[in-house]
Design goal:
Chain lengths: 83, 159
């Protein structure tokens, strides 16, 4: 569940930013129409994206975070806000 | 058009793979950043307010939101030259140090690796600001603008 908590805000922000870019390039209406016409492809695409994100990004981020936290251990951080 | 859309879908699916690879590639820079940060936090010549700001930077390196905020904040700070007001005298002095400049460079690399998409949007928006800043007053202004962007964005992105 915590994966979805981490992933959803990231996904939503990226979708909004991508929509803005599509809109800037005049492709927004076309892309929306295409996605509506190919709903099954859209659902499969989202599921595949989430799967790839979990395997290739989230797990790497967790490993890298652990290494970084271990290296930073003992640092005299002020106003600690670390989660 | 259909081919274009398939290419876009392919690129979107490749994005998490690329992000993960980039995050891994930035590992050595992140560890160097951690070492340098630790050293500066223990340095008695660094002021307490600067150490507070450095502490805030510690969490940014994995924050994907940072570059999204920086995309907007950096050009604003560059054009208004707000860093001359926002950064105190001790922080300005600190920015002259070689290790502080190295820390700023490493911080920039690490936060860019945390969000390649927003790093792209940041590069586009920063490019215009950088040309403006170089014409106006040189490379040190870019580092000061970045330092002020970090000061502006850090509490918002991690809070």
């Amino acid at each position: 569940m915590s994966y979805f908590k981490r992933m959803l805000p990231r996904l939503v922000t990226h979708i909004v930013a991508a929509q803005t870019l599509l809109w800037l390039f005049g492709l927004f209406n076309y892309a929306t129409r295409w996605l509506e016409q190919h709903r099954l492809v859209t659902v499969l695409f989202i599921l595949l994206y989430v799967f790839i994100d979990y395997i290739c990004y989230d797990s790497v981020a967790k490993q890298e975070r652990a290494k970084y936290d271990a290296r930073l251990k003992g640092a005299a951080l002020r106003k600690q806000k670390r989660k | 058009m259909q081919t274009g859309l398939i290419v876009i879908i392919g690129l979107v699916l490749a994005y998490p793979i690329f992000s993960g690879a980039l995050l891994r590639a930035a590992g050595p820079a992140r560890l160097e950043f951690a070492d340098l940060l630790k050293r500066l936090l223990a340095d008695p010549t660094v002021s307490e307010s600067t150490k507070e700001r450095l502490s805030e930077m510690a969490d940014d390196v994995f924050d994907w939101k940072f570059m999204a905020f920086a995309t907007v904040a950096f050009p604003y700070i560059a054009f208004t030259r707000r860093f001359s007001v926002d950064l105190g005298a001790d922080e300005m002095e600190f920015m002259q140090r070689k290790d502080a400049q190295r820390l700023t460079d490493l911080h920039m690399k690490c936060v860019m690796a945390a969000s390649p998409f927003f790093a792209g949007t940041f590069i586009v928006s920063a490019l215009f600001s950088i040309v403006f800043l170089i014409l106006a007053s040189g490379w040190s202004s870019i580092q000061k603008t970045w330092a002020d962007t970090v000061k502006t964005v850090s509490p918002k992105a991690t809070g």
